[in-house]
Batch of 2 targets.
Target 1
Amino acid sequence: MTISQTRGPAGWTVSGLLAEIADIGRDDDGSYSRFSLSPEDRSLRQWFISRAEELGLEVSIDPDANIWAWWGPEGPGAVLTGSHLDSVPGGGAYDGPLGVASSLAAVARLRARGFRPSRPVAVVMFTDEEGAGFGMPCLGSRLAAGVLPADRALELRARDGAPLAEAWQDAGMDAGMDAGELGPVEWLTTARCFVELHVEQGRGLADLDAPVAIASAVRPHGRWRLEFTGQGNHAGTTLMADRHDPVVPLAATVLAARRAATETSEESGAVATVGRVEVVPGGTNVIASAARMWLDCRAESADVVHAVVAQVEAEARAAAHQEGCGFELVQESWTPRTAFDPELKATMAHVLGDVPELSTGAGHDAAVIAGIMPTGMLFVRNPTGASHTPDEYASPADCEAGATALATILEELAR
Ligand code: HGY
Ligand code: MN
Ligand code: MN
């Protein structure tokens, strides 16, 4: 069955594909919450599998719950493309899905024009790139690349507290996902390369007035959990002098993070964010017994990230001590600075002609996969420059320009 019998190449527009999933996981404010292996994510996974099969691709799910759609037999020397479908809480419509939809549209174009790859091509949908499902960003790609040990992954819990293995069990996806087999995907090290298309998460292309860019590098970044423990008590009967309120050092630490990054951000590009806070037990009339916050810190250089985090940790420890509270800092994830493969970048630049090159402060599965094979990225213009918010946007014309560029690159790499 050729694709033209089902919907023809025109039916495989990026906007058309994105429109098919537009209602999945959409919140009232138009943002998206699609956490890995949640019911919303399972609907997205089914969508991806059905579209890939409609394209005549052979679908398999690896033990890390990544889904691979093969054009040609699974085998060595494969050209890989794809991205993720999961989102942050309140995220946008394009971060991840644009890459997956563009990969499907690019393969549809190549098939429609009769291209026959001389090597296997696969489109991948990676598990929990945002880490909003199980607390580890790029969970699926880190496991598949062998940079996250299976036993560390098995310690992770879903948002509802369920152990990861249980969530795998309950996901009810087709055979292949087995938490008991979590770990490196052997054939991955034999692949030729990986190219990920992604909506730009900044205004670089808008300012350059260009639809597509090639990525040069991903800046180093990491996540730390800071736990403050105190003395829970009654809000009305506990004198101020008798309190050990963990929310107080937490609040001081949020301000310390802001200060530490701002002090150096001009020259170092340092950014520090506290976007998630938990107070236990969380009663209006209850002095908390514990409070935890997550720090996301990034900069041009890893040294600066570590210096900012060290300063925040010192101030957190001092504030906790002053309030008679306990304190612990745990690093939850780290991605070193990733410069994409120069040769692959040159090939991409050669086939695309003169497109700009941009680095990014956003993390991607591509930054993980770059550790085990030549990897490149394509960015598509986002005129708002906003991301991880419903304001994230890419015009239909730019989406098509991205898919065309990706198809050209895949044809060159797989010829
Ligand atoms: O956090 C990031 O930079 C990416 O969106 N996961
Ligand atoms: Mn993201
Ligand atoms: Mn992303």
Target 2
Amino acid sequence: MQKIDLRSDTVTKPTPEMREAMAKAEVGDDVYQEDPTVNRLEERAAEILGKQAGLFVPSGVMGNTIGLKLHTEHGQEVICDSRSHILNYELSMLAWFGGCLARPVPTADGILSWDVIAPEIRQVSPHWAPTGLIEIENTHNVGGGMVYPQPILDEICDRAHERGLPVHMDGARLFNAAAASGFTAQRIAEKVDTVMFCLSKGLGAPVGSMLVGPRALMDKGRLYRKRLGGGMRQAGILAAAGLVALEKMPLRLAEDHANARFLAEKLATIEGIRLDASRVRTNIVFFDVSGTPFSAAQFAARLAREGVLMNAMGPMLVRLVTHYDVPKELCEVAVKTIENVLRKA
Ligand code: TLP
């Protein structure tokens, strides 16, 4: 049975062009900064985002962990959305490595605004841990792949900077935000201090994320990367795939977004499934199964038996993520399979 894997865009396999680039990659020892392919990837990532320097890291979690650490001191707070990835899915690295407390702010769809951030900022006092950083996630994963409206993001950065606070962006899916908004990744990231984005999600590289920002911070970040076990030696093999991902794959993300909209519009018509298809902007679709005989975990397990893989993200909440390895025809099969399973139930 052919598997239709909609659990995440992390499951994408490298393209033939990536594999060829990997086979031919020029390499060196990247801990000595002598890997020409890693160096090129770091330069290109910085150039594309309009920042001074880049740092190639093995994962998004490591990129965020280093990014958060670079701006903060132990004992500070980081303001973030209450459903942010850094708070809920990163094994508390913000606390474990960074020594900071998350100050979560509830939002409807993961999108913070200055109005909800400002009251949460804490100054130095005998009782409070002072705010060290504001973290935003764009696109917002559990918010349903939501994209920050650019004026809201710009305002957060401007006001934060007036207060002397830096802003880190978890842009794991930054290029999805760019494809959906029409703004370039550079414009989206213009005012944030550091950005992490993933090569290994919708961009299809097998491994790797980038942290970009001021050169002095990236130099310091290199040391944190080493501490975390991310000094990767002949990593040009991976960076070669990353370069193909960075240069070629952003152009096709609109296709994943169209497939996500297709899935959402079809699922919205199925009895028992609740979702607002008009909110689907990128490659992530969340829906509620409380009107079906299944919990989210049972729903995902039942569909897995039919070869359609998805993730339960809450007791009644299921997530589908579209990507390069699931073309439109397979999305059509996925919808039919879901319809059949629910009809039989
Ligand atoms: N997200 C994964 C899971 O961890 C939930 C997924 O399947 O969506 N930031 C954001 C917004 C992410 O969605 C992810 C991965 C990361 C950071 C971490 O990236 P990796 O998995 O490369 O460490």
